[in-house]
Amino acid sequence: MGVPRKTFLLPCTGCPSEIEVVSGQAGGRVECPSCGTRNDVPTFRDLDQLRTKTVASGGQVTRWGFPQAVILAGVACAVTCWTVAAFVGATPTSAIDVAMTRANIEAGDDAALYRSLQDYAQSTVDRGPMRVEVDLQRRTLFAQGMSRAMYAIGGLGAVAAAAAGIALLRTRRQF
Question: pTM of the entire structure?
């Protein structure tokens, strides 16, 4: 998208209408769309003596600048980081090895297995964590830390986008 060109209003010599001309037409001839009269366009130096066409604010083409880039980057950062944080933060909550449990069930007596699990659940003996549980705890702590970091980075992106949006709105109101 280019910069909007300044449009000059050339009075027609054959009728009361005005012809829109731009600086690239300086020194040439244009035909009036209303009456068909051919009119001489003033030289480039003399164009400034003509009235200019005012552009309605709704028809003005706006280009992307730094505030729009910050808004886009901030929103993209926030959405991406919050999505990653939601997936990383969804960690498993138990360390049960399903395959090992099935093997124990198939190998032993169901009643004996049930009694041993009941005894284990009701015992007050402290046991050290199993290797699988330690690994799960480490992964969970790492995932929670990464999830918090991603939420924080996403929050910074959202704050940057909001600040740029507010700055952009304030500059538009000044015009």
Answer: 0.41
Q: In 3D, which of 50, 21, 47 has the Cα closest to residue 33?
A: 21
- With 0-12 / 13-18 / 19 or more C-beta atoms within 10 angstroms meaning exposed / middle / buried, residue 162 is middle
Reported as a single tens digit per residue, the pLDDT across 18-66 is 999 988 888 899 999 989 999 999 988 888 888 888 765 555 556 777 8
Q: Are 29 and 39 in contact (CB under 8 A)?
A: yes
- Are residues 19 and 65 in contact, defined by beta-carbon separation less than 8 angstroms? no
Residue type, 150: M
With 0-12 / 13-18 / 19 or more C-beta atoms within 10 angstroms meaning exposed / middle / buried, residue 54 is exposed
Q: Render pLDDT for 75-130 as a digit per residue (tens, 0 to 9).
A: 888 888 888 888 776 655 544 444 555 666 677 667 656 756 666 666 555 667 77
Say how far apart CA 46 and CA 25 lie, in whole Å: 12
Six-digit token pair at 150? 């991603």
CA–CA gap between residue 66 and residue 26 (Å, rounded): 35
Domain boundaries in the chain?
7-59, 66-174
Are the C-beta atoms of 23 and 3 separated by less than 8 Å?
no
| H helix intervals, 54-130 | 66-89, 98-107, 110-122
